[in-house]
Specification:
The protein has three helices and nine strands; from the N terminus they run βαββββαββββα. The protein is an alpha+beta fold. The strands form two sheets. The chain has a five-stranded mixed β-sheet. It starts with about 25 loop residues before the first strand and ends in a 10-residue tail after the last helix.
Length: about 180
């Protein structure tokens, strides 16, 4: 298959969209230290270890085979990715409710983890931070679709506004033991 020259423009017809049921199944991160990564993803965020081998661990929520893979196969003891280089911007972890996102925020604060930012995107509310290896992490929940902001023609319109973190942490129904 020849290399696709995306700089050539859109002369070729666009491919048909993929099916609405397609999902990102998991991400696999290169980390410097498995134990340190597990302390963050499992000890703070609450994921569970499903499988662990020498140099790798597979973690999930709810017993799925894995949502996140962690490995040191090419990165044991390595530095975080340098700013200004290509690579993964962040992984995004979707919480089913605002209360569960509030629980995640309480866990972060309880562990002394600093946020890089917190945004209201209209369609979602999001917390941004870094894992111990410098990988970007977004924790978010989607508002119900009927609450998404839309243009007059019905298209979704997203934005970035400052999220009221105090209001989020006060969310009723949150169940985290971390206060």
């Amino acid at each position: 298959m020849p290399f696709l020259d995306v700089k050539a423009g859109a002369a070729e017809p666009a491919a048909p969209p993929i099916g609405a049921g397609v999902r990102i199944g998991h991400v696999h991160l290169k980390v410097a230290d498995i134990d340190r990564a597990l302390a963050f993803y499992c000890g703070v965020l609450g994921f569970e270890v499903i499988e662990q081998w020498d140099g790798a661990a597979f973690i999930s929520a709810g017993g799925y085979h894995h949502h996140i893979g962690l490995n040191t196969w090419e990165s044991r003891g390595g530095p975080p990715p340098a700013p200004g280089t290509t690579g993964l911007y962040h992984i995004a972890i979707l919480y089913p409710t605002r209360a569960e996102l509030a629980d995640a925020l309480r866990r972060l604060f309880g562990a002394g983890i600093r946020l890089d930012g917190a945004s209201d995107h209209g369609v979602s509310e999001a917390l941004y931070l870094r894992d111990p290896d410098g990988n970007g992490v977004e924790l978010y929940w989607d508002r119900p679709r009927e609450q998404w902001p839309r243009r007059l023609d019905g298209r979704i319109t997203m934005f970035t506004r400052k999220l009221d973190v105090a209001n989020l942490i006060a969310e009723r129904g949150a169940t985290s033991p971390v206060e």
